[in-house]
Amino acid sequence: MSGLFITMEGLDGSGKTTQLEILKQNLEAKGFNVLLVREPGGSKISEKIRNIILDIENKEMHYMTEALLYSASRAQLVHEVIMPSLKQGKIVLCDRFVDSSLVYQGVARGLGIDIIKKINNIATEGLTPDITFFLDIEPKFALERKKQQKKLDRIESEKLDFYNMVYKGYKTILKSDGGRIIRIDANKDLEDIQNEILTNIENLFC
Ligand SMILES: Nc1ncnc2c1ncn2[C@@H]1O[C@H](COP(=O)(O)OP(=O)(O)O)[C@@H](O)[C@H]1O
Ligand SMILES: [Mg+2]
């Protein structure tokens, strides 16, 4: 496989989408052919599965159903879009990937990291990013950014508990990672974060 597969991870509000959009422009300016996709989604069928996952009326959805739908959406994205693009030599930027499932479904939903790993290995045929950036920001600051409000109400405080669990999950997978995941301080300015990301990508080519 000749392309480069880069994924961005972190809490909602950590700045993933912002950084990926700038990164796409920067890499294109250097002459690379870049594809940016989001998860869940990124293909027609994957977007349909996304709608089922995110549908507010699907309150009775079992956590395992949720985990399998995420991996089904990912299987379609990997086989229809990511693998063919990598074969064409493109740089594929993905807004969340398997690590998000390990953390959200495995840790925060309590299904266990190992079982989520197994499901996703089947779904992706073991496709692993060349490099992953974890935008590290304290849950309360991420939530503040996303909501853009100073004081949290009752519902949002509950949400903070969930954010805390997700954050703990990211820290857990970072510990057992073999160096693929690069932790970036997401409290910094947009430009500083982007420069750190670019430096790490340039090092991949050395
Ligand atoms: N480094 C940063 N410093 C301050 N605000 C930021 C930074 N990065 C992103 N933001 C802002 O935080 C909010 C969430 O960013 P976004 O890129 O949508 O995060 P995510 O995709 O991880 O949910 C946006 O309003 C964005 O402008
Ligand atoms: Mg986003």
Compact summary:
By secondary structure, this protein is an alpha/beta fold. The protein has helices at residues 16-29, 44-54, 63-87, 98-108, 113-124, 139-147, 154-175, 190-204, and strands at residues 4-10, 34-38, 91-95, 131-136, 181-185.
Report on this model:
- With 206 residues, the protein is an alpha/beta fold.
- The chain has a single domain (4-204), classed as Rossmann fold (3-Layer(aba) Sandwich), CATH 3.40.50.300.
- It is built from eight helices and five strands; from the N terminus they run βαβααβααβααβα.
- It has a five-stranded parallel sheet with strand order 2-3-1-4-5, sandwiched between helices.
- Helix 2 (44-54) packs antiparallel against helix 3, helix 4 (98-108) runs antiparallel to helix 5 (113-124) and helix 4 (98-108) crosses helix 7.
- Bound molecules: adenosine-5'-diphosphate and magnesium ion.
- Residues 10, 12-18, 145-146, 189-190, 193 line the site of adenosine-5'-diphosphate.
